[in-house]
TrEMBL record:
Organism: Faecalicatena faecalis
Family: Belongs to the ABC transporter superfamily.
Keywords of this entry: ATP-binding, Nucleotide-binding, Transport
Name listed for the protein in its UniProt record: ABC transporter ATP-binding protein
ABC transporter domain span: 4-230
GO molecular function annotation: ATP binding
Lineage top rank: taxon: Bacteria
Annotated Pfam families: ABC_tran (PF00005)
Organism phylogeny: Bacteria, Bacillati, Bacillota, Clostridia, Lachnospirales
Length: 298
């Protein structure tokens, strides 16, 4: 059963900006990652889901309700974390959280308190004086604090958080997933999506590239490996066994982009004496270019 349905939406802002003929769905109890570089169209799509803007063409529904025509009803039934949070600067953090809770007709603040403790949030300071990270924590509390919300829409939720808080956020999403919540989460960080999501809808330059199972994406993503051998003879001999490896005459270093053949690559390297090894996972943009590029060796 699809909880969120996006069907052939286009929102054209001109000069190639916007989203174009985008379609995907989010199933009940699923965490779907909406993955793409900054400016790819993730926020534009999410704003249409929330009913803030109307598509030029196509339709968006949540639980069968039209996202633009019935936005007020939809917004009361879900948790939402925008990419850019509009705060009331005259309030402190706690006042803002209570304000949002009142709009949601929440009866208690127990869940909000629990979330503030989890994210080590002192919400009593003035919003206008808070750092990006502090404001993001308040946004997370507001998105997750209503226990009755079965749907969560999260736009770049870990933006501004340090690595420890990012890890705690991932744990929170996994808990909500286990509880059966339906979650759409946009990100430009593959690792975040990889740890939490079942599938990912991938967007680039406003167009949907693919909707894939996370396991398939893991297989497609490659590592850039640089190996320094004890002498040039070893480097040359090793490079000869891997045609796509890069080796320059007289060098002890070989570089290669390795995917599914990682195991055989490492085992073969282990037959030589290695003095240094550097491994870097592809950036998201490199991943796109490789995984969906012509002649990709996945």
């Amino acid at each position: 059963m699809s909880v969120i349905e996006i069907s052939h939406i286009t929102k054209d802002y001109g000069q190639g900006r916007g989203v174009f003929d985008v379609s995907f769905s989010v199933h009940k109890g699923e965490v779907l990652g909406f993955l793409g570089p900054n400016g790819a169209g993730k926020t534009t799509t999410i704003r249409q889901l929330m009913g803030f803007i109307k598509p030029d063409h196509g339709t968006l529904t949540i639980l069968g309700r039209d996202c633009f025509k019935e936005a007020d009803v939809i917004q009361r039934s879900l948790g939402y974390l925008p990419g850019e949070i509009a705060f009331i600067d005259s309030m402190n953090g706690m006042e803002f959280i209570r304000f949002v809770a009142k709009m949601k007709n929440m009866k208690g603040m127990g869940r909000a308190q629990e979330l503030m403790e989890r994210f080590e949030l002192d919400a009593m300071g003035k919003l206008k004086k808070m750092s990006k990270g502090m404001k993001q924590k308040i946004g997370i509390v507001c998105a997750f604090m209503d226990p009755s919300a079965e749907i969560l829409i999260l736009d770049e939720p870990t933006s501004g958080l340090d690595p420890l808080m990012q890890s705690r956020f991932v744990e929170l999403v996994l808990e909500e997933k286990k509880a059966g919540k339906t979650i759409l989460m946009s990100s430009h960080m593959f690792e975040e999506i990889e740890r939490t999501c079942d599938r990912a809808a991938i967007i680039r330059e406003g167009k949907l590239v693919a909707v894939e199972e996370i396991e398939k994406l893991k297989e497609g993503r490659q590592k850039n490996i640089e190996i320094t051998f004890q002498d040039t003879g070893m480097a040359k001999a090793f490079a000869a066994e891997f045609p796509k490896a890069v080796y320059q005459d007289g060098s002890r270093t070989v570089t290669a982009r390795v995917g599914r053949n990682l195991d055989s690559f490492i085992k073969k390297a282990g037959e030589y004496t290695i003095t240094d090894l550097d491994v870097r996972t592809q950036s998201l943009e490199e991943f796109f270019m490789h995984f969906y590029g012509e002649g990709a060796d996945k």
